[in-house]
Amino acid sequence: MDAFIALISSLLSFFYTSKPTVKPHQAKRLLKFISKKLPQHGILRKDTQGMVYVTINNNYIYKLIQFIQGEGFEAPPYFGKGKHGAHITVMPMDEVLYHAVGEIKECGKAIQFEPKECQIIHPEAWKSGEFAFLITVEAPALDLLREKYHLPQKSHDFHITIGVKSSN
User: Fold this and answer.
1) pLDDT at 81
2) Half-sphere exposure of residue 65: CA atoms within 13 angstroms, side-chain side
3) pLDDT for 87-146, tens place per residue?
4) Which has the higher per-residue pLDDT, 9 or 147?
5) Is residue 71's pLDDT more than 80?
6) What is d(CA 134, CA 21) in angstroms, rounded to the nearest whole number?
7) CA angle 22, 24, 30 (to 5 degrees)
8) Distance between CA 160 and CA 98 in Å, rounded?
9) How far apart are CA 163 and CA 21, in angstroms?
10) What are the Cα distances from residue 156, in Å, to 56, 84, 109?
11) How far is Cα 3 from Cα 24, in angstroms, rounded to an integer?
C-alpha cells in the first residue's frame, strides 16, 4: 500500500509541479528598467550550424538576472566560446534545415524590438520542474523575415531568456 501511495504521489507531482509566476510589480520593474537602461535593437546573425538569431546586449542577462536571482533563477548558459550570449532566436537550426533555408541576406542588419511582457515557462523539452524566465518581444521585422523565407508562423513569441531555474 505504501508503494502505491508513493507512486501516486510521484505521478501527481510530475503532472502538477507548481509553476512559478511573475508578480505584476516585478514585471513592471523589469520592463521599466529595460525601457530606461537597455537598447531595444540587435544584429541579425546566422551561426555555423544554421541557427538564425538576433544578438543583443549581454546586459539583458547580466543586469536583469539580478531582479530574479532571489527566486532561484540563474543566468542561462549562453556565455563562452562558441555560445550566442544574449539573443532572440528567429529560426532554430532544425527549422532552417527542414525548410532548406539558404543564405539569409539580411544578416548583419539591425533589428528593432519592443519588450512586451515577462513570463515564466516550462519548455516542453525540459525536465519536470525546470523553468525559464523570459522577456517576450515584439519585432515585426522578424515576422516579415520568417514570412519571406516561407517559414510557418512561430508557435511561441520571440523572446529573450534571462534566467533558468530547476526546482528539483
Assistant:
1) 86
2) 17
3) 999 999 999 999 899 899 999 999 999 999 999 988 777 767 789 999 999 999 999 999
4) 147
5) yes
6) 11
7) 80
8) 24
9) 13
10) 19, 20, 23
11) 41
Provide the residue type at 152 as one letter: P
Q: Which of 63, 57, 47 is nearest to 96 (CA)?
A: 47
Query: pTM of the entire structure?
Result: 0.84
- Residue 123 and residue 117 in contact, taking contact as beta carbons nearer than 8 Å: no
Q: 93 phi and psi, to 5 degrees?
A: -55, -45
Q: What's the rounded mean pLDDT across residues 11-34?
A: 72
Q: How far apart are CA 102 and CA 78, in angstroms?
A: 25
Phi and psi for 56 in degrees, rounded to 5? -125, 170
The residue extents of the domains of the chain are: 19-166
Length of the chain: 168
Instruction: Take residue 39 and report the three cell numbers written for it.
Output: 537598447
Query: Which residues in 17-140 belong to E strands, given as ranges?
Result: 41-46, 52-55, 87-91, 110-112, 114-121, 130-138
Sheet with strand 130-138: strands edge to edge: 114-121, 130-138, 158-166
State what percent of residues in the chain have pLDDT above 70: 88
